[in-house]
């Protein structure tokens, strides 16, 4: 039985203690203590219960120590994972910062290009407006040129008619002058003939008067 085994072990320990003393001087009372067998069995049972409790507590402590060790290992792994996550986070943060900077630079380029595009668009609109004005002016000038050509043609036609009329009138004037010269000559001749006739008539009248008086 377990109680008897415990008692035998206890007696062996006491015998060893007795043997360890000098020259066989052993106090039997210290080795074998008299008492009630029931009390001794109760003591053995209590001691066995205490030993079992101590073993259970030791086992619990060992389990707790093992759990603590496992917790430490898990905590270390968690710490390493946290460090790795922190390193990854820092890498991601650096990447995000770089991308944000690149986005800002890209936005600046886009803004600059947009401003340039607006300026180009303004210049283009001004050029288109100038082209429209030039086209309108050209059309106006073309219309004026066409009108001027028509007017010039009309003026040339009128001038040609005037020249023809002037030539005709010049011819008529020349004919009139020629006729006037002829008529003037005829007048002079008639006047001369008249004077001659008048002188002759006067002489004839005088001669008739003189002849009558004689």
User: How far apart are the first and last residues' alpha carbons, in Å?
Assistant: 241 Å
* Strand percentage: under 5%
Structural class based on helices, strands and sheet pairing: mainly alpha
**Major pleated sheet:** none
What would the average pLDDT be, to the nearest integer? 77
| Approximate helicity band | over 70%
Q: Helix tally?
A: 3
The total count of strands amounts to: 0
Indicate the radius of gyration in whole angstroms. Answer: 81 Å
User: Low-confidence spans: pLDDT under 50, at least 5 residues?
Assistant: 1-35
Polypeptide structure, described:
With 214 residues, the chain is mainly α. The chain contains three helices and no strands. The chain has helices spanning 2-19, 28-31, 37-213. It starts with a helix and ends with a helix.
Tags for this entry?
single chain; disordered N terminus; 214 residues
How would the blueprint of this fold be written?
Blueprint: H1 2-19, H2 28-31, H3 37-213
Task: Describe the structure in brief.
With 214 residues, the chain is mainly α. It has 3 helices and no strands.
């Amino acid at each position: 039985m377990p109680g008897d085994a415990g008692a035998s072990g206890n007696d062996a320990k006491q015998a060893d203690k007795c043997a360890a003393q000098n020259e066989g001087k052993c106090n039997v009372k210290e080795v074998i203590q008299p008492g009630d067998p029931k009390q001794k069995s109760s003591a053995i049972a209590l001691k066995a219960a205490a030993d079992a409790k101590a073993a259970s507590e030791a086992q619990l402590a060992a389990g707790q120590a093992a759990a603590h060790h496992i917790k430490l290992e898990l905590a270390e792994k968690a710490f390493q994972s946290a460090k790795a996550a922190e390193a990854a986070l820092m890498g991601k943060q650096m990447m995000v910062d770089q991308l944000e900077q690149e986005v800002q630079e890209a936005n600046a380029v886009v803004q600059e290009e947009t401003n340039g595009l607006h300026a180009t668009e303004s210049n283009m609109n001004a050029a288109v407006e100038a082209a429209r004005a030039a086209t309108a002016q050209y059309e106006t000038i073309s219309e004026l040129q066409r009108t001027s050509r028509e007017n010039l043609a009309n003026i040339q036609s009128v001038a040609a008619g005037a020249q023809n009329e002037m030539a005709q009138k010049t011819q008529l004037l020349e004919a009139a002058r020629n006729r006037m010269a002829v008529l003037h000559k005829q007048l002079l001749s008639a006047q001369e003939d008249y004077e001659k006739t008048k002188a002759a008539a006067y002489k004839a009248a005088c001669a008739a008067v003189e002849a009558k008086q004689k």
